[in-house]
Design brief:
Length: 98
């Protein structure tokens, strides 16, 4: 089984649907539901980067409740796109468990 960002490295060999299925299995520990599959596959088909989809799944309430620890490299993806004044606030929220 693939872990953390290994999914990105191996993703060149899989289609969008398989990528989303693997991300759910690794991050959420379950099969993807139809709604999630359609949502994320559609985003990928529209040009969304796979690393952004991984970040969104990994930062979900379900992932936090499950205790998934987001790899720093995945956090860095989001942090790079945030204004410097908001980075500390974002990092605190990203590690919050509801």
């Amino acid at each position: 089984m693939l872990y953390n960002l290994d999914l990105l490295k191996a993703s060149d060999d899989m289609d969008d649907e398989k990528f989303v299925k693997q991300a759910y299995r690794i991050i959420l520990g379950r099969d993807v539901d139809d709604e999630g599959r359609k949502h994320y596959v559609n985003r990928l088909l529209q040009g969304e980067a796979r690393k952004v989809v991984l970040y969104d799944i990994a930062s979900s309430k379900e992932a936090r409740q499950r205790g998934y620890e987001m790899p720093q490299a995945l956090l860095d993806i989001k942090v790079k796109s945030i204004q410097p004044s908001m980075k500390n606030k974002f990092l605190k929220l990203a590690h919050r468990v509801d």
